[in-house]
Amino acid sequence: MASALRTLDPELLAVAKTECNEEQSQREAMVATLQVWITKSPHLKAPTDEQLILAFLRRCRYSQEETKRRFDNYYSLRSVFPEVLGSRQVDEALLTQLQRGVHVIPARPVSPQGPRVIISPFRQIDPKKSSPREAFKLVFILLELLALECDNASISGLIWVVDARDVTMEQMMQYDPFLLKKAFALVDQCLPLRFVEIHMINMRREGQTIFNFVTKFLPSKLPFKFVVHKKSEDLYEHIPREAMTIEYGGTNGYQAEALDYWRQRLLDNKDYLARDAQYGTNEKLRVGLASAWSNGELNGMSGSFRKLELD
Fold first, then answer.
1. What pLDDT, in 10s, does the model give residues 20-48?
2. In percent, how much of the chain has pLDDT > 90?
3. Which among 255, 132, 226 has a CA at the least distance from the CA of 183?
4. Distance between CA 248 and CA 250 in Å, rounded?
């Protein structure tokens, strides 16, 4: 049967080799090996989609053991993070959340071989209409779809731009420590994509206290570049204007166009996401060491606190 893996253009192929240790001649064999491992792991019920497995391989620089660990983590975390990873139905609630502009993924990557960008305005998360859990649920669905369909994302990674303009205490206080800790564990140890940079823009001095409260629950050493900017213009010292939507002074299409595109992608993947509810792990059937999550690794508030300064 012919492989469903996409062919890369020469420039992106070169980045895949440098960043992900990818060799075109080995891709199919390594994906096939992992498909067999998934089907023969008694505790693991997970999809064997070639493109998803390839994203995990790229995230782990083609280390087979690291890929197995991360893939296993991704599906075993579901049992302790159901509020974000469970029940991924494409219903009116999810589509309404998207349409609010809680998360916007512009049409093009930073460059033909560069990362994809996600823009998340905090002010769109209205405490009276939604919650951070619903916003996290949506973004992790979008990230999985990016892993499935976007080679730039799985090879060059992601840049997350969080807009703190007009954020209120009521909005920020919804981000309870355990939600943040589990979301960070998902990004750091489970997700098949890597964040290369996270930028907080429009962070006013009065928001510093709230921001420090939220970030103190993250580890002191982060696996990505984290930069806080007082105004959005400072962002363009780090990424080109071509990466951002027109609303932010960029040239990467209008926000409404991006939302329409991802609304259609969600609808197109409705069945795929509905099937997702069956996936996870049965720890009683696991051979060997228990998963980190069932050992209670997410309990407690370990890790050092810190203060992030403004630019």
1. 999 988 999 999 999 999 999 999 999 99
2. 56
3. 132
4. 6
Helix then strand then coil, % of the chain, to nearest 5: 50, 10, 40
- DSSP 8-state assignment for residue 218: S
User: In this structure, are residues 164 and 204 in contact, taking their beta carbons and an 8 Å threshold?
Assistant: yes
What is the residue whose two structure tokens read 């060491």?
A: 289
More confidently predicted of 187 and 1: 187
- In angstroms, the CA 115 to CA 194 distance is 10
User: Distance between CA 63 and CA 185 in Å, rounded?
Assistant: 20
Residue 302 three-state SS: coil
Does residue 235 contact residue 262 with C-beta atoms inside 8 Å?
no
Distance CA 207, CA 297 (A): 31
Do residues 121 and 160 lie in contact, with contact meaning Cβ atoms separated by under 8 Å? no
Residues 6+ apart with CB under 8 A from 2: none
Determine the residue type at 175: Y
3-state class (DSSP) for residue 95: helix
pLDDT at 213 over 70: no
Check: CB of residue 28 under 8 Å from CB of residue 36: no
Place of tokens 């630019």: 311
Q: How far is CA 205 from the centre of its chain?
A: 28
Helix (H, G, I), strand (E, B) or coil at 163: strand
Q: Are 35 and 82 in contact (CB under 8 A)?
A: no
The per-residue pLDDT for range 46-99, each reduced to its tens digit, is 999 999 999 999 999 999 999 999 999 999 988 888 888 888 999 998 999 899
Backbone angles phi, psi at 196, to 5 degrees: -95, -30
CA–CA separation, 56 vs 66, rounded Å? Answer: 9
